[in-house]
Amino acid sequence: MSLSLVLLASLAVAPADTAGLPPDTLPAAHVTVTFGGEPGEAVRVRDFEFGLTNVPDTRHQGGSSAATQVRMTREPDALTSGLASRVASGERIPEVVARLERAGSAPIVLRMFDVQVVSERLLINGDNAALTQQRLGLEESIAQLTAEQGEADRQLAAIESLARERLSPPLEVARVRSNAAVVAKRLGAQRQRMALVEGQLARWVPIQEEVVLSASRTTVESR
């Protein structure tokens, strides 16, 4: 049986690394994984992890070899049964090519040979409850900061009007202007955090499929 899979994977990053970034600048990778050499249907993958480890080679004294493992989490679909059958049968895939691309960085091409589907698991995904709670908290924070920004803008307009009449000292004008800028910055940050949470909720699926691959040999190309 010939299977092919094209993956769009999001690289895992800490929330602190993305809190100040617009949604369109978040780290993302296009990953193409081929099973059998035919083009496949594009699916979205929540996580993609690649590991290359040096392990002792028991067949040769003092020798070692590189063990490759790929772990990916995605939404179950028509490919799920095909991948499960490879776990049961032990049927190996001659070559798997994964191409990872990030905006502003050179692509990374992983070529894995003699690949085995080690395991496949279906997982219940309960992340939506925590994400929904985050969204509710952010909605409250944004509403409060929006009100604060309105008040800060009114104070700034009033103090600038007085300053034009020379009725307000420059230091007071600078203080009010600085406060308005701080509130606007806080509000912008919360709105960006909200965009992150909304994006995660949009990609949420109730059931996830975790697939683990291993390879006898791997080459890594970075151009």
The total of helices stands at 4
Strand content: 25-35%
* Major sheet strand order: 1-2-5-6-7-4-3
Shape: elongated
Helix content: 25-40%
First-to-last CA distance: 33 Å
Structural class comes to: alpha+beta
Give the SSE order as H and E letters: EHEEEHEEHHE
- How many beta-strand elements? 7
Characterize the main sheet: 7 strands, mixed, barrel
Radius of gyration: 26 Å
Mean pLDDT level: 79
What are the low-pLDDT stretches, counting only 5+ consecutive residues below 50? 1-27
Itemize the secondary structure elements and their pairings.
Blueprint: E1 5-9, H1 15-18, E2 29-33, E3 42-56, E4 64-74, H2 79-89, E5 93-101, E6 108-124, H3 127-164, H4 170-203, E7 207-222
Parallel strand pairs: 1-3
Antiparallel strand pairs: 1-2, 2-5, 3-4, 4-7, 5-6, 6-7
Describe what this molecule looks like in 3D:
The chain has helices at residues 15-18, 79-89, 127-164, 170-203; strands at 5-9, 29-33, 42-56, 64-74, 93-101, 108-124, 207-222. The chain has a seven-stranded mixed β-barrel with strand order 1-2-5-6-7-4-3. The longest helix has 38 residues, at 127-164. Helix 3 runs antiparallel to helix 4. 39% of the residues lie in helices and 35% in strands. The protein is built from four helices and seven strands, in the order βαβββαββααβ. It is an alpha+beta fold and 223 residues long.
Summarize the structure.
By secondary structure, this protein is α+β, with helices and mostly antiparallel strands. Helix content is 39%, strand content 35%. Strands 1-2-5-6-7-4-3 form a 7-stranded mixed β-barrel.
